[in-house]
Automatic annotation (TrEMBL), chain A:
A Pfam cross-reference name: BPD_transp_2
Keyword Amino-acid biosynthesis: no
InterPro entries for the chain: ABC_transp_permease
Protein name, UniProt field: ABC transporter permease
Organism annotation: Amycolatopsis acidiphila
Main location, first listed in the record: membrane
One GO MF term: transmembrane transporter activity
Automatic annotation (TrEMBL), chain B:
Organism: Amycolatopsis acidiphila
Matching InterPro entries: ABC_transp_permease
Entry keywords, A to Z: Cell membrane, Membrane, Transmembrane, Transmembrane helix
UniProt subcellular location: Cell membrane
One Gene Ontology cellular component: plasma membrane
A molecular function GO annotation: transmembrane transporter activity
Membrane topology, as annotated: Multi-pass membrane protein
Record protein name field: ABC transporter permease
Domain of life of the native organism: Bacteria
Amino acid sequence: MTATVSARNAAFAGVLQRQGAAVVLVLGVVVAWFAFPRFGSADNLRDLALQSSFLAVIALGMTFVIISGGIDLSVGSVYALGGVLAAYGSRYGLVVAILLPLTVCSLIGLVNGLLIARTRMAPFIVTLASLLFARGLLLALTSEGATTYKVDSDSALLWLGQGTILGVGVPVFLALILFALGGVLLRRTRFGQSVFAIGGAEQSALLMGLAVARTKITLYTLSGALAGLAGILTAAYLRSGVTVIGVGTELDAISVVVIGGTLLTGGAGTIVGTLVGVLLRTLIQNVINQVGSLDSNYQTVVSGAFLLVVVVIQRLLARSRTRN
Amino acid sequence: MASAGLTVPDRTRVTSWLQDYGVYLAVVVLLLFNVVFTGNFLSAANFRTQLVQAAPVCIVALGMALVIGTEGIDLSVGSVMSVAAALVPLYLGAGPLTAILVAVGAGIVSGLFSGFLVARLGIQPIIATLALLVGGRGLALVIAHGRLVQLHNAEFLALGTGDVLGIPVMVLVAAVLAVLAGLLVRRTTFGRQLVAIGGNRAAGTLAGLPVKRVLVGVYVISGALAAVAGVLATARLGASDPNDLGLLMELSAITAVVVGGTPLTGGRVRVLGTVFGALLMQLVHATLIKHDLPDSTAQMVQAAIIVAAVYVARERNSR
């Protein structure tokens, strides 16, 4: 009898731990819907989705990296670099505007992966170095941040940021497709299994004969490429390569991944959770903007507090589960 | 790291020597290079500037080194600096000492908070301090209403620009704190416990060490030192700037610690190495600037140095 109750409690705790963010998101949306008349308007919802999409693309790559037990601090700088390269490349046509940033950003990710997988250096330090490197490269390209590359108003690139399909913004569309692909990659392929195995116990993964090094290199390359893609979309949306974006974006990405229930220790996590985490973050920002009287600085305070609450709850639930 | 158990690293004496003394060698080489190739380098005024600029990073890095010694990390230091800076103008009316005490008190409270999360709740240091990094700066901006405040209290400003016996106050504070940190690590029970816990948490617990107390202690020290650095930087700036003060400081401090030879895997703290790590990063920056190489190049070179330093140290780290 007691066994069933505690089993049920454990299951409940498990659901909370995994779906807690989703529950909070639904509650938040319901409250905001009734509290703020403007919240439910099609314009606002469209805006919410669009603003979520850029961070979502970056956080997708981060989710893979964190599940493998790693971390990628370089994404914020790579994101900004991708945007500048896209705006710069747009004068040479759409193909260059997309391929140039994707190539450079993937290369940075590839180097991250090579250093981490082949020389066994800590991901934290390797990607910290590439954070500095990518920002340096960005400054060099923009004559120390003084030059802003604009995207011509007749450039085909603009559609990627500002176009709509069936009323939904193209970035939103792309983000959803990428998340669907990411979900399949993580859950239904050998590669995805390897990512979980490496994050769970790297030594065992090695002994099982999994291609640990190759998987890691692929992961970090993927993360770099996705950050670059988010940069392309942002440049297309803002019509220019903005040099000052991306500072601290890596921390935003890590936050939403963790809020989404992916464990920083690796070995467990979901793509959907990350999507929920991103939406929650945008929701908080949006609500704070709707409450006009609230100092916009509270946004970061609330974000920090929220991250903390989620992590503490996750931790307490995990503890009670192991006790059971 | 994974295959560490499978292959025995063949460490040569050269790499071993580089691991121990590389950072000192690099500082000496860079100094010599500048003396020969950089105009106006060999002047008292220039040395002063270099030391003063390295002082805040050095102070923060000392706390970071202790935290890293326990296999932790403190990402909140930059935000703690900004909170300290935001508090200074509010209490400066009651005298500089009050303002400093309040600011440092806030740093201690931040450290207690991080320490509680890490030691009591068992939350990973990177996440526990990330929350404060994100929220802390917001808090600083809320306190300061998002504004930069000019400061006019001459006594307070002397902290940033004044001298004692011909040595800038900031440099003196950094030097004293470095000596204290060195004594703490080498000569106190706390220091030995810290290193033991960082080397092997489970063994430390089994040996009956006060693991939680030591963990809280290092985060409190780190928070207090970050606040001190925030106060000094504010005095030097002549203004409280919660928007920009301490931005990316966590990265600079971690870099100084790692370049100085303290492994991220804990169990070892190199205080003098950390001081020289901070000096090295400052010297690299100054060298590039003085040779008219832009900031962008400076950042890329800094990245290369981090990778090189960690590459040299990696075999020790992977044990």
